[in-house]
Amino acid sequence: MSLFPPSTPTPRFNLTLPQPDGRPGVIDAYLALARDPNAPGVVVLHEMLGVNADMQRICDRLAAQGFHALCPDLYWRQRPRALFSEHDNAQRDAALSLGRSFDADLGTNDLQHIMDWLRQMDGGARKVGCVGYCMGGLLSYRVAACCRSEASVVYYGVGIERFLDEAHTVACPLMVHLAEQDDFIPPSTQDAMAQRLHADSAAIIHAYPHTRHGFARRGGRHFDAEAARLADERSSRFLAQHLLPDPAGFPPP
């Protein structure tokens, strides 16, 4: 399997995983490599919009910070390589519909295979964490609770309240970013999440005043530059603290 240098505009690889009936399935993904071949890995989990330019930009940023960053196509079972624009109402509705039909259990199982692949990529043995947004944020939480991960970061994960009974099984450091005025995660749900996560895990939770869902999405309708900068800085420091062998270049989160 060939690996792509960071200078490649849109590097991709094919990873084969078994489908439930035993037939092979191919998962498409965006891969950005750090300079150090032995660098730790981060799996980036996309929103309902798919592996778009913003997700690729996040991978590139993480690679520049010293992580091999991999964003798999979570829709590989339903509609491979699906991409949507939030600025087109029909596409936005289609993304919401596809996201609602996504099987979080199958997706979580897929992610254990994907993380294990990244952990052993190119014959190495590295630490691997994940960071997820919206639908991917739910999966990043479930990875912390159900999979082998060294760290997980959640940006406005939708649906976590349905899996709060898994909070006591969170076995890795967990950081959660919430938008104060999130249309999909109302204050009552945020309060329930915070109470359960604080009671059953050592999760770090940050709420961002006056922000809405998707505040970290560059080019998005609700992008908030200052909140995104702060959340991204906190996430990078958190991942460095738990994944890099020498996180001296990153102050504590």
Secondary-structure-derived class? alpha/beta
Instruction: Using the coordinates shown, work out and report the CATH topology.
Output: Rossmann fold
Sequence of strands across the biggest β-sheet: 1-2-4-3-5-6-7-8
N- to C-terminal separation? Answer: 36 Å
Classified in CATH, the superfamily is Alpha/Beta hydrolase fold, catalytic domain
Number of strands: 8
Structure write-up:
This protein has 253 residues and is of the alpha/beta class. The protein has a single domain, classed as Rossmann fold (3-Layer(aba) Sandwich). The protein is 34% helix and 19% strand. The protein has six helices and eight strands. It has helices at residues 53-64, 89-100, 104-119, 135-146, 187-200, 225-243, and strands at 12-18, 24-32, 41-45, 68-72, 128-133, 152-155, 174-179, 204-208. It has an eight-stranded mixed β-sheet, sandwiched between helices. Strand 3, helix 1 (53-64) and strand 4 form a beta-alpha-beta unit. The chain is globular and about 45 Å long. Residues 1-11 have low confidence and may be disordered.
Highlighted features:
253 residues, alpha/beta, Rossmann fold, 8-stranded mixed β-sheet, 6 helices, 8 strands, 34% helix, globular
Summarize the structure.
The protein is an alpha/beta fold. It is built from six helices and eight strands; from the N terminus they run E-E-E-H-E-H-H-E-H-E-E-H-E-H. The chain has one domain (12-245): Alpha/Beta hydrolase fold, catalytic domain (Rossmann fold, 3-Layer(aba) Sandwich), CATH 3.40.50.
